[in-house]
């Protein structure tokens, strides 16, 4: 996603280029101490990079005693599902926390994030023209645009593991194993275990007497239908890849788009729609083969059969319609 700058950004860069090479007033040890303090105050371990802080880093003579990894962010682009900045930022935070877990006393590698609306001058100084953008700034970097090492787009679309490989390949620093947070905290696990122990006598009594929901056939039938819908609607894919149900229309920000025109991406609403149509077809087939055969009135059987055929044909037609519209493999009618 391309970004544009205002005139003040370039004026700021000009001032930096004129002043910084002359005034190397900041001691590198003092800057490392300041960065370490800022990192300790951050709940994520990521330091927020501002124009002022970047000026301080520039004022330290090279080679600097530390390496930087910078994540370039823009809050205005978080709603754009194509570049998935929030997802990429979460992976960056996983990388950061893993590094600090594996290297708690390291003062030679720092993680930064920078916001476009706050620091356009810094974006321009790095020559950032589009997002996503992650770059590694080695200790010898003088011209940040020329000397920084940009992470390739093939790596930024992946996970923290790929980012770790990039850092270890382009620098002397070792990230170590990636530690992903669990779904529930340690305190929550303890509460669940305690509750399970308290309720276990009552659960055992219910199971022995055969008086539980697991013994109710209707529950199993409903569960089977849910699993079927869960499978054919691509819900697991949406959860793993954090696919949104809908996205904001680029041409009209006040409008939501539930069906994306193109085969390169699928929204959650599309999968749920197809899953719903598949489920209708499956339920009608089950009803005709297991319930309708027990109806003795032939006229009712024929009427229900015709209705089931009509609805099934409609459901299959809608699935094919969506498939052709997404892929462009056939004409669209209606």
Automatic annotation (TrEMBL):
PANTHER family per record? DOLICHYL-DIPHOSPHOOLIGOSACCHARIDE--PROTEIN GLYCOSYLTRANSFERASE SUBUNIT 3B-RELATED, DOLICHYL-DIPHOSPHOOLIGOSACCHARIDE--PROTEIN GLYCOSYLTRANSFERASE-RELATED
Q: Where in the cell is it found?
A: Membrane
Q: Which UniProt keywords apply?
A: Membrane, Signal, Transmembrane, Transmembrane helix
Using the record, list the residue span of the signal peptide; answer none if the entry has no such feature. Answer: 1-25
Q: Does the keyword Nucleotidyltransferase apply?
A: no
- Domain of life assignment: Eukaryota
Say yes or no: keyword Magnesium present. no
- Which spans are transmembrane here? 190-208, 220-240, 272-293, 299-316
InterPro entries reported for this sequence: OligosaccharylTrfase_OST3/OST6
Question: Would you tell me the protein name for this molecule?
Answer: Probable dolichyl-diphosphooligosaccharide--protein glycosyltransferase subunit 3B
Membrane disposition: Multi-pass membrane protein
């Amino acid at each position: 996603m391309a970004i544009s700058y205002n005139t003040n950004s370039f004026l700021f860069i000009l001032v930096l280029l004129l002043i910084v090479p002359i005034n190397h007033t900041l001691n590198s040890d003092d800057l490392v101490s300041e960065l370490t303090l800022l990192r300790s105050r951050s709940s994520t371990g990521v330091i927020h990079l501002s124009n002022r802080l970047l000026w301080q880093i520039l004022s330290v003579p090279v080679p600097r005693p530390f390496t930087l990894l910078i994540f370039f962010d823009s809050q205005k682009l978080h709603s754009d599902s194509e570049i998935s900045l929030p997802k990429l930022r979460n992976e960056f935070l996983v990388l950061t926390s893993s590094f600090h877990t594996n290297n708690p006393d390291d003062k030679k590698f720092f993680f930064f994030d920078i916001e476009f609306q706050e620091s356009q001058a810094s974006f321009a100084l790095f020559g950032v023209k589009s997002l996503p953008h992650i770059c590694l700034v080695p200790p010898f970097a003088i011209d940040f645009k020329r000397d920084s090492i940009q992470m390739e787009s093939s790596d930024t679309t992946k996970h923290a593991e790929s980012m770790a490989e990039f850092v270890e390949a382009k620098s002397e620093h070792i990230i170590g194993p990636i530690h992903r947070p669990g779904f529930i905290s340690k305190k929550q696990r303890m509460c669940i275990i305690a509750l399970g122990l308290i309720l276990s006598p009552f659960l055992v009594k219910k199971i022995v007497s055969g008086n539980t929901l697991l013994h109710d056939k209707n529950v199993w039938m409903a569960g089977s239908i849910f699993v079927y819908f869960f499978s054919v609607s691509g819900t697991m894919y949406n959860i793993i890849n954090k696919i949104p149900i809908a996205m904001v229309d680029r041409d009209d920000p006040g409008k939501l788009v539930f069906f994306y025109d193109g085969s390169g991406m699928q929204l959650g609403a599309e999968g749920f729609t197809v899953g719903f149509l598949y489920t209708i077809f499956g339920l009608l087939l089950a009803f005709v083969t297991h319930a309708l055969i027990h109806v003795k009135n032939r006229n009712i059987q024929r009427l229900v059969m015709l209705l089931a055929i009509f609805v099934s044909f409609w459901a299959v037609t809608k699935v094919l319609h969506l498939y052709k519209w997404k892929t462009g493999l056939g004409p669209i009618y209606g």
